[in-house]
Design a protein that fits this description.
Blueprint (H helix, E strand, L loop, with lengths): L9 H8 L5 H8 L11 H8 L4 H14 L2 H13 L1 H13 L1 H9 L12 H4 L3 H8 L5 H20 L5 H26 L1 H6 E7 L1 H4 L9 E9 L5 H20 L10 E2 L12 E2 L1 H10 L3 H7 L3 E5 L1 H15 L8 H14 L17 H15 L11 H10 L5 H25 L10 H10 L6 H33 L10 H10 L5 H12 L4 H18 L4 H15 L3 H9 L1 H11 L4 H7 L19 H14 L3 H28 L10 H32 L5 E7 L1 H4 L9 E9 L5 H19 L10 E2 L12 E3 H10 L3 H6 L4 E5 L1 H15 L7 H18 L17 H15 L11 H10 L5 H25 L10 H10 L7 H24 L2
Parallel strand pairs: 2-3, 2-4, 7-8, 7-9
Antiparallel strand pairs: 1-2, 1-5, 6-7, 6-10
Helix pairs in contact: 1-2, 2-4, 4-6, 4-7, 5-6, 6-10, 9-11, 10-11, 11-14, 15-17, 18-19, 19-20, 19-23, 20-21, 21-23, 22-23, 23-24, 23-25, 23-26, 24-25, 25-27, 26-27, 26-29, 27-29, 28-29, 30-32, 31-32, 31-33, 32-33, 33-35, 40-41, 40-44, 41-42, 42-43, 42-44
Length: about 1000
C-alpha cells in the first residue's frame, strides 16, 4: 500500500472511527494473508467496532483463524461475513473475553457452537447442558466441554439475548450439570465406593440461589446415607472419598485451566467438620449448635447432584429450621454484625473499588433481602426463593418493601451484577474489584452499552446505582413499618400489624405495640413535621436497632419531637445536618442519663448539630457565663437556678460526646484511646462542678453581703473532685477555708463563712428539674464532728497536732476550686509539707497505710458484692491503683516534682518516668484504672444512677458492654476481660504496695 508521507491511510481513519485504540497494529493484522478475503468487507469492520474492545476482538479473530486447519479457515470467514448471528456472537465474545479467546485458539472448532440460532439454543437449561457434557469421560474433557458451554452463555450475554438474571441462572444450571458430570466421573473411577453409599450434593450460595457469577466458588454441602446393607462408617468413608474426588475434578488446574473451586466450608463446623455427614447428623448440628449466619446460608440450599431423593429430603428437613431462625435471640444484630464484619475486612485501598462487599455493593442488597425473607418468610411461603431478584419482587408484591424502593433496588442490583459479570468475563478470574486502568474501564463501559464517553459514563452510572443501594438497603427494612401505621400510599400493599410486630421484635424491640404507636404518632398526617420525620425515621430506626435499647431510643425521639416538633430550627437541624440525626439516635438509645438531661431542656439537641458542639467548653468560658448570669438575677434562688441549668446543659454536652466517642458514627470511628475519653469526662465534669460551686458562692454572697464577704473564702476540691477525675454520679468532696478580712471580728467572719456554706449547699440541692450537686465536706478535720469551715491558722494547728496518716494521704488530692485564689494558694502551701514529707514516709507510716488499706478491703466491700467485679473496692479496682500511686507520691513527692499532682494517671506516668515503677507495671495499673472508671461512667449513663458494680439487668449489662466496645452477645467477654485486667493489676499492687 503506497502512502503519502505524513498522511494517514483511509483504513487507519476508519479504524479510529470504529473504536480501535491502536489503529496501526489493527491495520497490520488486517493485512495478514489469512484475512485477505474479508479485510475490505465493511461488514467486518462494523461488527468489530460494535464490540467492547475492537482491538482485542481482532487479535482474538486472527488467533482463531491461524489456529484453524487450512481447509476450515475459509469456511469460518465465509460464515462470519454471511451469518450475522454468528458474527455478533463470536466477535462479541472475542471483544469481551481474552480468556475465551484463548480457549478458541486452543480449540478452534468450538466456534461452531455459536452457529446455531434456534429457540432451544436461546435459553438452555440443565438438560441441554447435561447433553453437552455427556461425552466428557475425564476431567480435562469436562473442562473443555464446560468452556464450550460457557462460550455460548457469554455469547448470548454480550449480544443482549439474555439479561443479567437469565445469565446468572444459566451459569447456575451449567454448574449443576458440571457437578453431575464430575460426580459421574468420580463414581466411575471408584465404583466400589459408589456402591456403598447414597451421596447428594446440595448447592448453597449463588449456585443454590440460581444466580451464579462467571467465576465464583461453588458452595456445596454433602449429605450421604449408607446404601442398602452397607455399614455406616465404611459408607461415610466411601462418600467422603467420592466428594473429595468430585471437588478435585472441578478445582484442579491443568493445561485446560480450571472450572471453579468447590467450597464445602458452609458445612456444619466449617473446615473443621467432616466433609460428609448423614442427614441425621446434619439435623442434630443445626438443632443444637448452628449460628444465625448458618440458617441464613441455608436459605439458598438446593439439591443439584447425586441422589435426588436424599437431596430433597435434606432440603425438606432443614427448611423449617431456616424459617424459625428469626425467632433466635439477637437475630437481626447477628446478621447486621456479620455484614459490618465483612465490610471491616476490606483493605482500605480497595473499599472504593469493591463492587460486591463495599458500601452500596451487591452484598448490601443481598443481606437486606435475606433479612426480610427470614423475618417474614416463616408466615409467607411466597418469599422463600433463593434468588435475590425473585425474592425482592415477592417482598414488593406482599407489601414488605415499598414498590418504588424495590424497583430502584432491582435496577441497581442488575447493573452492579452486569458490571461484575463483565469484569470476570475478561480473564475468567474471580474478582469483584472495578479496574482502575483506563483500557479496562473503557472496555467495561463499552460492554455495558456506554459508547459516547465510556469511562465517564461508567463511573457516573456505577456511583449512582451504588448510592441508591446505600440509601435503600436499610430503608428497605424500616420504611414499610411507617407505611403500616401511617397509610401513606393508597392502593399499595402494606405490612399487616402482625408482620410489622414481627419485624419490630426481630429488630430487638421488647414492646412492639408501643413502638407502633410511637411510629404512628410521629409519621401520620400531612404536616411538614410528619413529612420530615417520615424521611428520617427509616434511618433512625436502623440506628436504634443497632443499640442496646431500641424502645428507649424511639420513645425518646417521640418525646423530643413532641417538645420541639413545631420549632423550625429543630426539623431543619435533623434534615440538613448530616451528623445531628445519628448523634441524636445514639444518645437517645444508649441509656437513661443523657435522655433525662435532654428531656429537661430539649433545646440542647442543637448541640448535636454543631461541628464543634461536642467539645467541652473551658472553665474560663463557663465561669464567665455563670457569673454574668448570677449578676443579672434578682435573688439567689433565681441565680442558682440559672447556674444549675447551665450545668445540666453542659452535662448533656459531656455525656453526648462521651457516648458518641465510645460508639462511633458512620463517618467517624469510635475513640481508640479509652484513657483520653476518661480524661475528657473527668476534666469536663470537674470544671463544670467547680464553676457551679463558684456561681452558688457568688449568689449566696450577693444575697446577704453584696459584693464582698466579711472574710476571704475558698473551696478546696478533694478526692476525685480535686483530682479532676469526677464521674457523672460523683459527689463533690470539698474543704472550706476562710480568713477574716482586716478589721473584721473573727467570730463575725466565722459566722459569715458558715452561713455561706449552708446557703450554698441549700441552693445546690433545691428540688428542681435540674440534677442536684451534692457537696460533701466529710474529709475535713475531725470529719462530721468538726467545724464545716476553718481558718488557715486552725487548719495548721490541727494538722500539726492531730493529723492522721490517712488525712495526709487525702490531702494529696487537694486543689483550690472556687473562691479566693490567693487563699487557696496559701492553703496549698500549708499542706504541701504534710502530703509530700521532707524525708518521705517512715516505715511505721508505710505499715499504717498498708494496715488501713487491708482493713478497708475486708470491711467496706458491700455484703454479697463480687470482689472481682467491684470497680472501687474490688480486686485491682480504683482503690488498689490509687493507694499504690499515692504511696509513691508520699514517699517520693518531695524529690520528684512530677509526683506533686492531684491526678492519678499523671502521677503514675511521673513515677514511671522517674524509674519508681517498671513501665509494664505502670501500664497494667493505668489500664485497670481507666477500665474501672469507664465502667462506673457507663453504669451511670445506662441506669441514670451511680453504681460501683456491673448491672444485673441483661439489657443494662448489654448497654454497658456496647459503651465499652463489645458487640451484643459478648457481655461474657466483657466481664472476663475486666477480671483479667484487674487480676493483673492486683498482682502489681501486691508487689508494689504490699511488698515493696
Amino acid at each position: 500500500m503506497t502512502m503519502v508521507p505524513g498522511r494517514r491511510s483511509s483504513t487507519f481513519t476508519r479504524l479510529l472511527r470504529h473504536g480501535f485504540t491502536d489503529p496501526s497494529a489493527a491495520e497490520r493484522l488486517l493485512d495478514l494473508p489469512d484475512l485477505s478475503s474479508v479485510r475490505s468487507d465493511p461488514v467486518l469492520l462494523e461488527a468489530l467496532g460494535a464490540t467492547a474492545d475492537p482491538d482485542l476482538a481482532l487479535r482474538g479473530l486472527v488467533r482463531l483463524v491461524e489456529a484453524e486447519e487450512a481447509g476450515e479457515r475459509q469456511i469460518l470467514l465465509d460464515t462470519l461475513i454471511t451469518a450475522k448471528p454468528l458474527r455478533d456472537r463470536l466477535l462479541g465474545v472475542l471483544g469481551a473475553s481474552e480468556a475465551l479467546g484463548d480457549h478458541l485458539a486452543r480449540h478452534p472448532r468450538d466456534w461452531q457452537a455459536l452457529v446455531t440460532y434456534e429457540a432451544a439454543d436461546l435459553h438452555p437449561g440443565i438438560a441441554e447442558f447435561e447433553r453437552e457434557l455427556a461425552g466428557a469421560g475425564d476431567p480435562d474433557a469436562l473442562r473443555v466441554g464446560y468452556r464450550r458451554c460457557l462460550l455460548s452463555i457469554a455469547a448470548r450475554d454480550v449480544c443482549g439475548t439474555t439479561d443479567v438474571a437469565e445469565v446468572a441462572a444459566e451459569l447456575a444450571d451449567l454448574a449443576t450439570a458440571t457437578l453431575r458430570a464430575a460426580q459421574r466421573i468420580a463414581s466411575a473411577a471408584a465404583p466400589e465406593d459408589a456402591a456403598q453409599c447414597r451421596l447428594a450434593v446440595v448447592a448453597m450460595g449463588k449456585c443454590g440461589g440460581h444466580e451464579l457469577n462467571y467465576v465464583s466458588d461453588v458452595d456445596v454441602i454433602f449429605v450421604a446415607e449408607p446404601a442398602d446393607g452397607a455399614e455406616e462408617n465404611k459408607a461415610m468413608q466411601a462418600a467422603t472419598r467420592l466428594a473429595a474426588h468430585l471437588m478435585r475434578i472441578c478445582s484442579d488446574t491443568t493445561v485446560e485451566g480450571t472450572i471453579w473451586p468447590v467450597d464445602a466450608n458452609l458445612r456444619p463446623e466449617g473446615r473443621n467438620g467432616p466433609l460428609v455427614r448423614t442427614l441425621s447428623s446434619h439435623l442434630a448440628y443445626y438443632q443444637r449448635w448452628a449460628k444465625t449466619w448458618e440458617f441464613q446460608a441455608l436459605l439458598k440450599a438446593r439439591p443439584v447432584a447425586g441422589d435426588p431423593a436424599l437431596g430433597a429430603a435434606y432440603v425438606d428437613a432443614v427448611s423449617p429450621l431456616v424459617w424459625q431462625a428469626a425467632d433466635r435471640e439477637n437475630f437481626v444484630p447477628d446478621v447486621q454484625k456479620m455484614r459490618r464484619r465483612v465490610v471491616d475486612t476490606i483493605p482500605a485501598d480497595r473499599v472504593d473499588r469493591e463492587l460486591k462487599l463495599g458500601p452500596g455493593g451487591l452484598r448490601d442488597v443481598e443481606f437486606a433481602v435475606q433479612l426480610l425473607q427470614l423475618v417474614h418468610g416463616r408466615s409467607d411461603p411466597s418469599l422463600r426463593s433463593g434468588s435475590t431478584l425473585e425474592a425482592l419482587a415477592a417482598l414488593a408484591r406482599g407489601g414488605y418493601v415499598g414498590r418504588v424502593d424495590a424497583v430502584q433496588l432491582d435496577d441497581a442490583y442488575r447493573f452492579l451484577r452486569a458490571m461484575e459479570h463483565r469484569i470476570q468475563l475478561y480473564r475468567l478470574r474471580r474478582t469483584h474489584l472495578v479496574p482502575d486502568e483506563e483500557p479496562d474501564l473503557r472496555r467495561l463501559g463499552r460492554s455495558l452499552g456506554l459508547r459516547t464517553d465510556p469511562i465517564a459514563e461508567l463511573n457516573q452510572a456505577w456511583r449512582r446505582h451504588a448510592s441508591v443501594v446505600r440509601r435503600l438497603h436499610e430503608k428497605l427494612f424500616y420504611r414499610p413499618l411507617l407505611d403500616a401505621v401511617a397509610q401513606l400510599a393508597p392502593g399499595e400493599s402494606r405490612l399487616s400489624t402482625t408482620a410489622a410486630t414481627a419485624r419490630l421484635v426481630a429488630l430487638g424491640y421488647e414492646d412492639p405495640a408501643a413502638a407502633l404507636r410511637h411510629l404512628e404518632a410521629l409519621s401520620s398526617g400531612v404536616s411538614r413535621k410528619a413529612a420530615i420525620q417520615r424521611t428520617l425515621l427509616p434511618v433512625l430506626l436502623g440506628w436504634f436497632a443497632d443499640s442496646a435499647d431500641p424502645d428507649a431510643g424511639l420513645l425518646g425521639f417521640r418525646k423530643v419531637s413532641d417538645a420541639l416538633g413545631k420549632t423550625p430550627w429543630y426539623l431543619r437541624l435533623l434534615r440538613d445536618e448530616g451528623a445531628a440525626a445519628e448523634n441524636l439516635a445514639r444518645v437517645l438509645s444508649a441509656g437513661r442519663l443523657a435522655p433525662d438531661l435532654l428531656m429537661r431542656a430539649p433545646e440542647a439537641v442543637s448541640i448535636l448539630g454543631d461541628p464543634h458542639g461536642l467539645a467541652p467548653r473551658s472553665r474560663e468560658h463557663l465561669e464567665q457565663e455563670v457569673l454574668a448570669a448570677v449578676g443579672r438575677a434578682d435573688d439567689a434562688e433565681t441565680a442558682v437556678a440559672v447556674v444549675r441549668a447551665v450545668r445540666r446543659r453542659e452535662l448533656f454536652r459531656t455525656t453526648a460526646a462521651d457516648l458518641i466517642g465510645s460508639y462511633g458514627t458512620e463517618d467517624s470511628p469510635a475513640e481508640s484511646d479509652p484513657g483520653a475519653l476518661v480524661d475528657r469526662v473527668g476534666g469536663a465534669v470537674t470544671d463544670l462542678n467547680a464553676v457551679t460551686i463558684a456561681g452558688a458562692l457568688r449568689a449566696a454572697v450577693r444575697a446577704e453581703w453584696g459584693d464582698t464577704l466579711p472574710t476571704r473564702f475558698a473551696v478546696i476540691g478533694m478526692g476525685r473532685f480535686g483530682g479532676h477525675e469526677l464521674g457523672y454520679g460523683s459527689d463533690a468532696d470539698v474543704l472550706f477555708v476562710h480568713e477574716p478580712r482586716e478589721g473584721v471580728d473573727e467570730q463575725e467572719a466565722s459566722r459569715a463563712a458558715n452561713r455561706v456554706v449552708s446557703e450554698m449547699r441549700r441552693l445546690l440541692q433545691l428540688p428542681t428539674a435540674d440534677p442536684p450537686l451534692v457537696i460533701d465536706p466529710d474529709l475535713r478535720p475531725e470529719g462530721k464532728n468538726g467545724p464545716l469551715v476553718r481558718t488557715l491558722k486552725s487548719y495548721g494547728a490541727y494538722y500539726r497536732r492531730w493529723s492522721l496518716g490517712w488525712e495526709s494521704q487525702a490531702l494529696l488530692r487537694a486543689e483550690p476550686m472556687a473562691g479566693d485564689l490567693d487563699l487557696g494558694a496559701e492553703f496549698t502551701a500549708l499542706i504541701d509539707p504534710l502530703r509530700y514529707p521532707e524525708d518521705g514516709l517512715t516505715d511505721n507510716a508505710v505499715r499504717e497505710i498498708r494496715r488501713l488499706k487491708a482493713r478497708m478491703e475486708s470491711e467496706r466491700l458491700p455484703r454479697g458484692a463480687d470482689p472481682t467485679l467491684h470497680t472501687k473496692l474490688g480486686r485491682g479496682g480504683l482503690s488498689d491503683v490509687e493507694w499504690t500511686v499515692q504511696l509513691m507520691q508520699m514517699r517520693h513527692g518531695r524529690s520528684v516534682p512530677g509526683l506533686r499532682t492531684t491526678r492519678t494517671r499523671a502521677a503514675l506516668a511521673a513515677a514511671r518516668e522517674a524509674g519508681l515503677i517498671p513501665a509494664d507495671d505502670a501500664q497494667t495499673l493505668d489500664e485497670a484504672w481507666v477500665l474501672a472508671t469507664r465502667v462506673r461512667n457507663a453504669v451511670m449513663l445506662v441506669r441514670g444512677r451511680p453504681g460501683d458494680t456491673f448491672p444485673s439487668v441483661p439489657r443494662e449489662l448489654t448497654a454497658v458492654g456496647r459503651y465499652l466496645g463489645y458487640e451484643e452477645g459478648h457481655v461474657g467477654d466483657m466481664l472476663e476481660d475486666y477480671r483479667r485486667v484487674t487480676r493483673r493489676a492486683r498482682g502489681v499492687v501486691e508487689e508494689r504496695f504490699y511488698g515493696g
